[in-house]
């Protein structure tokens, strides 16, 4: 089987998958957990509990409000200590339910056994309802509510399901471990997705720096009809859904459109496993696999973590806070967010925590642009980052829009590769916010 | 524990790349051509190279320190590259004070006056070369005849093959002119290696090609500009030759003579003054090739590489506007 990849742009940062061989461990539940009601893209969920309430593991804490929103369930058993605004990983203060935990007691209707349930009995509509109820969102990072993706809009048809096992971010290995250790659940999860979307074919895209995952899933494919594995050449940002679709199918999602435009639906491997648990085990999305890694991490590893667990607890499990710690990143080094506080909770979108040493934490000095065109060459969307950065400094929003600033997927390849160390993505992000606002006001008129 | 954490936007890692690395890669790529110049011109070449580099670096330093009073950038190596390129573009026996003037024009006027590295619209070394060519036409076109074995005395001077061709053109048919320049059995291989009159760095096409291959694999240059330039220049020469072989010489002659190779690989590919997109670079390369040959065929100067590249430098911003990269997802988002 030949290796595929996307054509346009891309970089190849050092892979640094230092935690790839570490089996998934379960992180013990901390004394206090902080559960934000906004762990997804879209409107925050509405809190249903009040101070002093006793909650069980898996009990609904907050209800989805609106079409793009997701239910939040209690990741632990205990007493609601308070409902407060607490700073989350984004640095913003958001409404959170703070729970003092006691011994785990799950809701009765949740199947907590480890038996594999292969037979999918629910209908398409029941599956979608179940996913909606269980608060399943995309675990790849965007945390888009999954049930929305499964309702294919009128006039469009899904013909291919793509499962994203690329994990192109350096360092991160949570998806890798999940593919090896939860392979069967993953396959059933994909089967459920195929049934809900009414597609015959699903392809799992995996970069070939994970040969064990490719081998294991390829062998399993024989038991699960319609599913196949596509090995991909290692190239960042292949895990971007537009790049993945291009790599596997050769199709290009038009500017400003969704994958369904070219008949594809993309879901992360972690999402598929969460889906399996939601549909087959009636288990809401209350825990996920998180990689703790980085040059400053004493014992890099992969942990099964309940949502709401402070990042500090994860760092302690991995050997504690290092003395030379310079930066803590929520996510991978290319797209992750630098955190202000290690007390911020793990949420549905947390794929990893990267601990960087003080030496690595600082940016290189910024020099003049030498017009080497590397940013243009590596941009996977065919944009001109140097030009967009210039237009943003001149506040020329019109021209920035014409030069497709909104197409930017914020992969960071431009800044990564710039020999002058120019913070191109900083400018572009600022520009996207401005241009986005302008486009929305234009829509209202 | 409350330690202070660094906060910055993503990405949090950076490729092991810097302006300095790029400039030194270019410098390493020029080593073969430098060695060839040492072989043919001996101490003259050493004198010229050292003087030019020292002058360029010194002038950048002085301007930054006393005029701009800004950050010093001489350690990024770009002034050294300009210095070597300037030396490559003049005859080996050029008087020392003309080189200093060249360095002042290159760094002072063509580079620092526009704001320093990255801001110059034209290639500094070429601006200086053309300035010197117009100001000191005699000294700039008195070429020492290449003499291997380190000539220390009695330098013989002569014209370049292109210069003689310009001289002879119109007086006699092209094949005869070619015969007079290259002898009865034209030996292109010899020319390719470097036995021809010319500026310091344009002697040997092979040495320049070697450097270009190195830059290509170190990803300092892409294939677009050199290939477009080469194919269009030689293609144009071939077309004219096929139309009228009595008036136009063999395209091979154009390939191995003059500053074409130096221009193609080290001047036209200058990042700062060339376009950004792949398509734009091809357009730019073709422009350079065609203008070079137009000047060689019909212009007042025997050589057109410098002028061609400078003219196309001026078009680079327009080319950037007209030839955008191929965008991902071809459908254009409609403004409502």
Mean pLDDT of chain B: 86
Strand order of the largest sheet of chain A: 1-14-13-17-15-16
End-to-end Cα distance of chain B: 52 Å
Query: Could you spell the SSE succession of chain B in H and E letters?
Result: HHHHHHHEEHHHHHHHHH
Distance between the termini of chain A: 53 Å
Name of the CATH class of the largest domain in chain A = Alpha Beta
Helix percentage of chain A: 25-40%
Fraction in beta strands of chain A: 15-25%
Number of domains of chain A: 2
* Biggest beta sheet attributes of chain B: 2 strands, antiparallel
The total strand number of chain A stands at 17
The total of helices of chain A stands at: 13
Structural domains of chain B: how many: 2
User: β content of chain B, as a range?
Assistant: under 5%
Question: How is this structure best described in words?
Answer:
The complex is a heterodimer of chains A (445) and B (336). Chain A is α/β, with parallel strands linked by helices and 445 residues long. Chain A is built from 13 helices and 17 strands. Chain A has helices at 124-133, 146-150, 174-181, 183-197, 211-220, 241-249, 269-281, 311-317, 374-378, 385-393, 397-402, 413-417, 424-444, and strands at residues 24-26, 32-36, 46-47, 54-55, 60-63, 72-73, 78-87, 93-101, 160-164, 201-207, 227-232, 264-268, 287-293, 301-306, 325-330, 337-338, 352-357. In chain B, 60% of the residues lie in helices and 1% in strands. Chain B has helices spanning 19-29, 31-41, 43-68, 78-88, 96-111, 124-135, 137-140, 161-168, 174-182, 188-193, 205-217, 224-243, 251-256, 260-267, 278-298, 305-322; strands at residues 143-144, 157-158. The longest helix of chain B has 26 residues, at 43-68. The chains are: A alpha/beta (445), B mainly alpha (336). Chains A and B meet through strand 15, strand 16, helix 9, helix 12 and helix 13 of A and helix 1 of B.
């Amino acid at each position: 089987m030949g290796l595929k990849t996307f054509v346009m742009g891309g970089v190849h940062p050092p892979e640094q998958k230092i935690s790839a061989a570490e089996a998934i461990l379960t992180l013990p539940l901390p004394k206090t957990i902080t559960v934000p009601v906004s762990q997804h893209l879209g409107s925050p969920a509405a809190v249903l509990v009040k101070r002093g309430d006793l909650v069980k593991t898996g009990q609904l804490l907050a209800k989805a409000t609106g079409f793009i929103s997701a239910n939040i369930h209690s990741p632990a058993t205990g007493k609601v200590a308070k409902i407060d605004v607490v700073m989350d990983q984004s640095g913003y203060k958001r409404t959170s339910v703070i729970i003092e935990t006691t011994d785990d007691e799950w809701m009765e209707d949740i199947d907590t056994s480890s038996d594999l349930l292969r037979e999918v009995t629910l209908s398409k509509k029941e599956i979608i309802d179940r996913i909606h109820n269980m608060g399943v969102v995309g675990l790849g990072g965007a945390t888009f509510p999954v049930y929305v993706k499964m309702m294919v809009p009128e006039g469009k048809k899904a013909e291919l399901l793509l499962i994203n096992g690329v994990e192109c971010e350096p360092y991160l290995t949570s998806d890798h471990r999940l593919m090896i250790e939860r392979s069967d659940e993953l396959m059933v999860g994909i089967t459920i997705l195929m049934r809900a979307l009414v597609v015959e074919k699903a392809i799992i895209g995996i970069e070939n720096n994970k040969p064990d995952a490719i081998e294991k899933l390829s062998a399993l494919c024989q038991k699960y009809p319609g599913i196949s594995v596509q090995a991909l050449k290692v190239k960042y940002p292949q895990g971007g859904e537009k790049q993945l679709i291009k790599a596997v199918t050769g199709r290009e999602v038009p500017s400003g459109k969704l994958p369904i435009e070219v008949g594809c639906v993309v879901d992360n491997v972690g999402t598929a496993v969460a889906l399996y648990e939601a549909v087959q085990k009636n288990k809401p999305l209350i825990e996920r696999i998180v990689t703790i890694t980085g040059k400053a991490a004493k014992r890099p590893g992969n942990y099964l973590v309940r949502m709401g667990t402070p990042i500090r607890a994860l760092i302690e499990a991995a050997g504690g806070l290092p003395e030379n710690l310079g930066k803590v990143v929520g996510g991978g080094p290319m797209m992750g967010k630098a955190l202000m506080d290690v007390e911020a909770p793990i949420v549905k979108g947390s794929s990893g925590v990267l601990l960087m040493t003080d030496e690595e934490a600082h940016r290189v000095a910024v020099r003049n642009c030498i017009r080497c065109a590397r940013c243009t060459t590596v941009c996977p969307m065919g944009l001109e980052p140097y030009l967009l950065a210039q237009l943003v400094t001149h506040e020329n929003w019109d021209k920035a829009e014409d030069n497709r600033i909104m197409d930017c997927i914020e992969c960071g390849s431009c800044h990564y590769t710039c020999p002058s160390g120019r913070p191109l993505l900083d400018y572009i992000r600022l520009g996207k916010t401005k241009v986005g606002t302008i486009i929305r006001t234009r829509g209202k008129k | 524990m409350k330690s202070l954490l660094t906060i910055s936007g993503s990405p949090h890692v950076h490729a092991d790349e810097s302006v300095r690395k790029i400039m030194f890669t270019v410098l390493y790529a020029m080593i073969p051509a430098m060695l060839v110049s040492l072989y043919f011109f001996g101490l003259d070449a050493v004198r010229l190279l050292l003087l030019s580099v020292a002058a360029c670096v010194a002038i950048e330093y002085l301007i930054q320190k006393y005029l701009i009073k800004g950050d010093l950038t001489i350690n990024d190596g770009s002034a050294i590259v300009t210095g070597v390129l300037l030396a490559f573009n003049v005859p080996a026996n050029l008087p020392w004070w003309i080189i200093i003037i060249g360095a002042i024009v290159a760094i002072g006027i063509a580079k620092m006056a526009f704001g320093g590295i990255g801001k110059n619209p034209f290639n500094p070394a070429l601006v200086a070369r053309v300035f010197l060519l117009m100001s000191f036409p005699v000294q700039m076109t008195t070429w020492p005849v290449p003499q291997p074995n380190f000539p220390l005395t009695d330098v013989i001077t002569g014209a370049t093959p292109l210069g003689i061709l310009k001289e002879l053109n119109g007086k006699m048919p092209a094949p005869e002119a070619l015969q007079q320049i290259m002898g009865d059995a034209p030996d292109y291989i010899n020319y390719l290696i470097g036995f021809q009159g010319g500026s310091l760095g344009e002697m040997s096409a092979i040495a320049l090609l070697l450097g270009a291959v190195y830059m290509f694999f170190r990803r300092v240059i892409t294939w677009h500009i050199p290939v477009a330039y080469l194919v269009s220049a030689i293609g144009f020469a071939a077309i004219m030759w096929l139309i009228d072989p009595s008036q136009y010489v063999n395209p091979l002659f154009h390939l191995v003579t003059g500053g074409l190779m130096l221009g193609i690989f080290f001047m036209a590919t200058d990042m700062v003054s060339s376009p950004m997109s792949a398509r734009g670079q091809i357009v730019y390369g073709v422009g350079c090739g065609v203008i070079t040959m137009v000047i060689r065929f019909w212009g007042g100067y025997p050589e057109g590489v410098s002028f061609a590249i400078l003219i196309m430098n001026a078009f680079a911003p327009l080319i950037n506007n007209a030839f955008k990269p191929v965008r991902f997802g071809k459908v254009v988002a409609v403004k409502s």
